[in-house]
């Protein structure tokens, strides 16, 4: 990442939000997928938090390490070489600019298509990267589908594939992202004054489900219902799952799409890899009729994933993206 002046660095700072009393903060749900009570715990975590950590997930460390190795080689490359893989359109290499609406962060990233016919020709060794991504995404998608089917079982849905089939569809609009947050020693003075370096600004994920794996550097934070931000302890051998906006709608608000962000580290780099499981573009998203209890109203207007995706990516990260699709949103 190119060195920046102190004045330019200021735009990446936010003031620290009120701290959370560790005695009152409930632990992030930890779910062992091999245990018989995992279905119940998955649904409870989605209802209470919209975020949880899974262990005994069945994905080999070798699969993870191979992709992380390829990503490390890429982000360690000279800047000019990395820029040949960009700018993102929407896929490719990006640096500091997130999306097209003025959001910035102390981050470099690769956004990749995961469709079978996708290609990574912009990368220096596309065949090696493609192979590592394919193996990893296949494993992570299978885990995500298993989790979604367990949720459907616990919700007593007749079709246990009602969520997972959207990811397994050949036209599924799923994407894969690798984020790299370089160290920034110039910011230590600002940190001492109570500021945090924004790696990736606060947002929810618009898709159905997100599967995150990061190294052992901290930085991920989630927002609690009272607006407080809490740090998520890193764990390189586990996966973190986010409920996406689309799953919140499909469950008529029972599951919560959680707001999260990344605070960068002044001394250590951080790398994360995220699979965003999305439905086909023409898929209609609306609360499932089987989840609407007697006389319960649908909280959301029906929309296609194409419509919501366009709306989401034409707004800033922190915007309440679901607001314009709520039936009973308050007008101020």
Automatic annotation (TrEMBL):
It catalyses: gibberellin A1 + 2-oxoglutarate + O2 = gibberellin A8 + succinate + CO2. Keywords: Dioxygenase, Iron, Metal-binding, Oxidoreductase. Catalyzes the 2-beta-hydroxylation of several biologically active gibberellins, leading to the homeostatic regulation of their endogenous level. Catabolism of gibberellins (GAs) plays a central role in plant development. Converts GA9/GA20 to GA51/GA29 and GA4/GA1 to GA34/GA8. Its EC number is 1.14.11.13. Belongs to the iron/ascorbate-dependent oxidoreductase family. GA2OX subfamily. One of its GO terms (molecular function) is gibberellin 2-beta-dioxygenase activity. It holds the Pfam family DIOX_N. The keyword Nucleus does not apply. The lineage of its organism: Eukaryota, Viridiplantae, Streptophyta, Embryophyta, Tracheophyta. It comes from the Eukaryota. This is gibberellin 2beta-dioxygenase. Residues 171-279 form the Fe2OG dioxygenase domain. PROSITE patterns: FE2OG_OXY (PS51471). It is an enzyme of class 1 (oxidoreductase). Pathway: Plant hormone biosynthesis; gibberellin biosynthesis; Hormone biosynthesis. One of its GO terms (biological process) is response to light stimulus.
């Amino acid at each position: 990442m190119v060195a920046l002046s102190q004045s330019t660095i200021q735009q990446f700072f936010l003031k620290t939000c009120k701290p959370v009393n560790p005695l009152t903060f409930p632990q992030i749900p930890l779910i062992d997928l091999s245990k018989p009570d995992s279905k119940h715990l998955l649904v409870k975590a989605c209802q209470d938090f919209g975020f949880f950590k899974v262990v005994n997930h069945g994905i080999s460390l070798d699969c993870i390490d191979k992709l992380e190795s390829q990503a490390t080689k890429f982000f360690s490359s000279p800047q000019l070489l990395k820029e040949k893989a960009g700018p993102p359109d929407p896929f490719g290499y990006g640096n500091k600019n997130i999306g097209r609406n003025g959001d910035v962060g102390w981050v470099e990233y690769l956004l990749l298509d995961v469709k079978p016919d996708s290609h990574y020709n912009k990368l220096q060794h596309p065949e090696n990267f493609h192979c590592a991504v394919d193996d990893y995404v296949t494993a992570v998608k299978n885990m995500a589908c298993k989790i979604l089917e367990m949720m459907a079982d616990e919700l007593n849905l007749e079709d246990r594939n009602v969520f997972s089939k959207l990811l397994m569809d050949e036209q599924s609009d799923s994407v894969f992202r690798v984020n790299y947050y370089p160290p920034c020693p110039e910011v230590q003075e600002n940190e001492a004054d109570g500021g945090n370096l924004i790696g990736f600004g606060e947002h929810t994920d618009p898709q159905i489900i997100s599967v995150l794996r990061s190294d052992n550097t901290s930085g991920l934070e989630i927002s609690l219902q009272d607006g407080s931000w809490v740090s998520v302890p890193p764990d390189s051998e586990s996966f973190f799952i986010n409920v996406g906006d689309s799953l919140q709608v499909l469950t008529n608000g029972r599951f919560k799409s959680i707001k999260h962000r990344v605070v960068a580290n002044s001394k250590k780099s951080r790398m994360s890899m995220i699979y965003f499981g999305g439905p086909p573009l023409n898929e209609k998203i609306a609360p499932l009729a089987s989840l609407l209890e007697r006389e319960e109203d649908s909280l959301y207007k029906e929309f296609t994933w194409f419509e919501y995706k366009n709306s989401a990516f034409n707004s800033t990260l922190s915007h309440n993206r679901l607001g314009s699709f709520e039936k009973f949103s308050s007008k101020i």
